[in-house]
Every structure is written in C-alpha cells, then in structure tokens.
Amino acid sequence: MTNFPWNRRHIISLEDFAPSEYESVLKTALSFQDVLSRRNKKVPTLQGQVVANLFFEPSTRTRSSFELAAKRLSADTLNFSPGSSSLSKGETILDTAKTYLAMGTDLMVIRHKGSGVPATIAQEMDRLGSGVGVLNAGDGQHEHPSQALLDLLTICNALNPKQPTIDDLRGKKIAIVGDILHSRVARSNLWSLTACGAQVHLAAPPTLLPKAFIEAFSQPIRTGSRSVQRQVFVHWQLEPALKDADFVMALRLQKERMSAHLLPSLREYHQRFGITRDRIQKCASTVKIMHPGPTNRGVEITSELMDDPHLSLIGKQVASGVAVRMALLYLMGGSKNGDLSR
Ligand code: NCD
Fold first, then answer.
1. 83 and 196 share a domain?
2. Residue 9 falls inside a structural domain
3. 73 found inside a domain
4. What is the pLDDT of residues 106-115, one digit of tens each?
C-alpha cells in the first residue's frame, strides 16, 4: 500500500485539517475499499496491535463499523460498554482509559456524551508518554470526525466513481438540513466540506440554527501560504438551501430537544423541513440524499426517498464507514514507527 503523508497521533477534530490530509484519508480509504471488495477482506496491517472501542454512549453503526474495521486490519479488539463496566462502581473515565492502556492498548476509539472527553484522554495519554492514538467517535455536540470523513468518501465516490479526489467537491452545493445546533456531524462536515471547496448551505428553524452558529466557521482555510474563506450560508427556510443542491444531507431530529421547546411538533417540522420527492425537484437533477443515521422515518426524510436506490446514499455511507475507519486506524497505527507531533 502506498503511504500518504500523515503526522497526527490523534484525531479529535477536523477544525485544523488541511486539504492534503483529506486527500490522504480519501486515497488510503480507496485502497481499503479495494481490499473490501476482494474475497479475502482481511489484511495483516495491525497484527499484534490492540484497538479498544470505548463507547460511553449508545451506538449501533459507529461502534460496529470501528470494530469491523479493526478486525479487517487484523488488530485485537476490546469493546467496552458502560452498563457492564466498573464505571458503575465509581471508576473515573480516565482510570478506565488507563486500565485499557495497562493492557497494552495501542489505539483508543472513544465516544462520550460530554464534549471534550476524547481530547482529555488524549492529553493524558500524551502526558504519560504512552504513544497511544485517540480517535474521537463522537463527543457531545462537538465533533464526529470519522462520520464526516466517510461522508466525504461517499460524496467523492458519487461525483467521480472512477478516480475520486477531493477536488471534485470544489464549487458543489451541499445542503445540510435539520438539528444543526446540536449536531456533531454537522460541525465536522462543515470543517471538511468547506476545506475541500464545497459551498455548504444550512437549513433549519432559527431555534436549531442561530445566526451566530456560523461565526466559528468564518476562519479561513490555510494551505501553505494561501488562505481561503469558507463558504457557509444560513437559511431558515428549506427552499433556498435545496435550490440546485448537488447533495442533501438530512440530520436526525433529536426528539429529546422537543422537551426544551425548540420545536412545536415533529409533524410541523416535517411540513416545513422534511425532505420529500416534491421538494427535491428544486435540486440539481443529479442530486443525492444522505443521512448519518439513525433516521426517524417520515420526519427528516420520507421513507420512500430513503429507500430509493437512485437517490439515497445512506447504505453507501454505512459501507464507506468501514473503509474510512480502516484508513484512520491504519494512518494512526503507523504512529509506532514515525515521529508524530500532533
Ligand atoms: C450520529 C451521532 O451519533 O452523532 N450518528 C452516527 O454516528 N451515525 C448522528 C445522530 O445520532 O443523530
């Protein structure tokens, strides 16, 4: 396998990812996509290494996807779930992480409902001089880097199936619709898509998309000596976001937000912001629909669109997840051999 430039020990956020790093992830993931299309889908890359999946929050696809990715790379995997662990006996999260370190863990994949937990564990691992790489698998409302990277692979594959590159994204219009304020998926996607030159149009009711939200994304993208403004637009109505869009990414409406009175009802949300066949007529004729899952069928998106194989990339997103996570574990697993400063 060709080696693409990489110098990160941890992947916590995509905020400071450079276009060249997205290209490295994409190219590495494409190689693993080839591996996954073979009869024998396993490679010995991480043989003898231990990958610990520390999921302090429920997850179906992300946890299974990381586990399968690690297994395809021949790593030994440890799976942690809080219900059956010593957390219920009062152990702190850092002590849990140190327990896994003492067992010889090389890479930790961490999901937690608190923003900043993977970063704190990464700092502690560095302080101890452990050499362990920490990968954020979703922290609170902060970030979900591997989801945005699998979305990137899915989009590039759709745009240019023969030879996908991040340059295919330049000037493309991507609408992100739904509970943006609380979404770590939206945040990570905003960093990655804008860094690759796409225009991101956000659409949601004002309670789920305050105008100040995009201020964080006003910092330019730096590539060498060049600096380019990120293209982010806010809409409180769906139609302008959908107009001529190349991709529509719907986000899960977090029902738990309803109790905070941020939305009148799911029915009203669907009437104003639900993705329907009628509404996507305004999009580019080649439009594709995406959703990170889990989905509330008939709320964010109609059931019929979700299941339309010509329009929906949802299944492809899940499949891309394994290749991308293999790429991330592979790139980070190389940390044992190289000088990694980040
Ligand atoms: C997302 C998550 O957990 O952040 N799902 C996922 O990882 N595929 C989105 C969500 O829960 O709505």
1. no
2. no
3. yes
4. 999 999 999 9
Q: Does the beta carbon of 184 lie inside 6 Å of ligand 1?
A: yes
Q: How far is the CA of 338 from the centre of ligand 1 (A)?
A: 32
Residues 188 and 300 placed together within one structural domain of the fold? yes
pLDDT of residue 337: 43
- Residue of the nearest CA to atom 7 in ligand 1? 62
Cβ contact 236:273 at 8 Å: no
Q: Is the dihedral of CA 34, 38, 42, 45 positive or negative?
A: negative
Residue 190 in contact with residue 180, Cβ under 8 Å? no
DSSP 213: G
Q: Is 292 in the pocket of ligand 1 (CB under 6 A)?
A: yes
Same domain assignment for residues 266 and 179? yes
311 versus 1: which is more confidently predicted?
311
**Pocket lining: 178 vs ligand 1, CB cutoff 6 Å:** no
For a pocket test of ligand 1, which of 56, 62, 151 has the largest count of ligand atoms closer than 8 A to its C-beta? Answer: 62
CATH code, 160: 3.40.50.1370
Please indicate whether residue 145, judged by its CB atom, sits closer than 6 Å to ligand 1. no
How does residue 258 score in pLDDT terms, banded at 50, 70 and 90? low
Nearest-angstrom CA–CA distance, 303 and 300? 9
Query: How many structural domains comprise the chain?
Result: 2
Rounded to 10 degrees, the C-alpha dihedral 219/224/228/232 comes to -60
Instruction: Give residue 138 CA to ligand 1 midpoint distance, Å.
Output: 8
Question: Do 178 and 250 lie in a common domain?
Answer: yes
* CA–CA dist 299, 281 (Å, integer): 19
Beta carbon of 252 within 6 Å of any ligand 1 atom? yes
**Per-residue pLDDT reduced to its tens digit, 190-240:** 999 999 999 999 999 999 998 888 888 888 887 777 888 999 999 999 999
- Cα(144) to ligand 1 centroid in Å equals 8
Task: Give the domain range for residue 120.
Answer: 19-143+319-337
